[in-house]
Amino acid sequence: MGDLFRFQPSPIMSRLTKTSLMLAFFFALDKGLAILRQILISREFGKNPVLLAQLDAFNAANNLPDLLFALISGGALGIAFIPVLTEYLTQKDRASAWELLSRIANLAFVVTAGLAVIIALLARSLVGWELGVAPGFNAAQQTLVVDLMRLNLIATIIFSISGLAMSGLQADQHFLLPALAPVMYNIGQIIGVLFLAPQHGIRLGSLQIPAPGMGIYGLVYGVIIGAILHLAIQIPGLFRYGYRWAPVLGLDNPGVKQVLRLLGPRLFTMSFIQFTFLARDNLASRLEPGAVTALTYGWMIMQVPETLIGTAIGTAILPTLSEQVARKDWAAFRDTFERAIRVLLMLTVPTAVILASGTGPWIERVFGFNPQTSDLLIQVTRVYLFGIIGHSIIEVAARAFYAQQEARLPLIASGLNALAYLVLGILFFQPWGTVGISLANTLAFSGEALLLLYWHNRRMRQPFNLRSSLLRTVLGSILAGGCVLLVLHVLPVPILVSSLIAMVAGLVVCLPWVWLETRTLLHLGNQE
């Protein structure tokens, strides 16, 4: 039972490939639910200008709680923790590893709860400050942001434990329950928008069922329900692998010190990443109504393929790379990393071109915003989509450094990214508005990806050989994009149907150009 979801290498497909595909499947389910959630939200709040202003406030209110989660128990501590926990599982025993997990989880909970209280007390100043969350909102919107932010911090405290549960299970090469956790989180949020938010009851066919009528507050209570479900789904896995909680902290523990040494640079790295969201909404709050929401939704749409590709491969590859480093098998490390980058190029470049060319009609019809907001969202999404390539490479390249317990270089790259984003955002948002902000994001993250690859290439004894893969992928993607536009123009069927056919046709046109990389995907993690 314990090995039910531990994939073994096979002649057809490597364990790492199987894990990546499994994660991609559950991430697809998660993102499908996330899109459904956002559709329900946009149809509830997206047409009325008053409700759209409330939705802007809800999106802005998420920023500081998301920052706190990302720093303490999400991307920062999780990625710093997995290499150390993997080392314990590889070189020591499970009991030592679970004791370390208890120490780190307890520390994360105490720190998160303390910072949450501070943010709740200072929320009004943090929102209205000129360099804060939403200085461009009016007084009523800022008050709403404060109220929603304080409620959202409850979910953040729950995530302080749940995020580390994910890391513990992933370090033990168990990926199923951590992959299900985001699905449960979205289910909680859907409960909020369907059953708590509606002001005029819930309509099921001809039946009208009374609802709490919480409005925008119902969305936040859905977030809290989702956080509880996110944690609950992982508890059986912890028990199955013998985890027992211990009431210990122990900052002088060698394992804790090792995690904290990696965590320091990672904290700043994640701070820079989250800074881009704060800067985005700070600038967008000064623009037309719906700007914050358009950027939030455009980012979410881009994150769907980015998560299925970059996050899935990055999540699956970190424990493998960490094991190879622990064994000092540098040939396997280089081979695994280069294969991953070639696969990322094969998947992300065509995806960016095809989706940017063909998804406009679906965005317009599905979300149901007013015409102005829909047009803005389409433009922003197209710009964001070309950032898939850089974002996905960062997912793997940064983890390859953390597998080596090297956090300094990702920190420098992320800091330069944040600086570039701020400069470009200020330069672009005045002449190009909301689209300029999304362009700044795409350019900054693409630059970070190139820098990380350059540093990896310099550290490797044998340089990467990506030129052939990149050339064929780019040529195939250009032909695919032209095919999508041609089919959209000439096919005499409803626009949603023609859009879907066009994107499938573009994929078919591109596939022969990336066939070698498709075969590489099947053996990701196996040495040649």
Structure notes:
By secondary structure, the protein is mainly alpha-helical. It is 79% helix and 1% strand. The chain is built from 19 helices and two strands. The protein has helices at residues 15-45, 49-61, 63-72, 75-91, 94-128, 139-171, 176-196, 216-232, 235-240, 254-284, 291-326, 330-358, 360-367, 371-385, 388-403, 408-459, 467-490, 495-510, 515-522; strands at residues 202-204, 207-209. A two-stranded antiparallel sheet has the order 1-2. The longest helix has 52 residues, at 408-459. The chain is globular and about 60 Å long.
Order of helices and strands: HHHHHHHEEHHHHHHHHHHHH
Kindly state the percentage of residues in helix: over 70%
How many alpha or pi helices?
A: 19
Q: Would you identify the regions where 5 or more consecutive residues have pLDDT less than 50?
A: 1-12
Specify Rg, calculated over alpha carbons: 23 Å
Biggest sheet: strands side by side, in what order?
1-2
Task: Give the strand tally.
Answer: 2
Mean pLDDT over all positions: 83
Shape: globular
Separation, N- and C-terminal Cα atoms: 32 Å
Question: DSSP strand (E) fraction?
Answer: under 5%
Helix- and strand-based class?
Answer: mainly alpha
Most strands sheet: 2 strands, antiparallel
Index terms:
528 residues, 2 strands, 1% strand, globular, 19 helices, mainly alpha, disordered N terminus, single chain
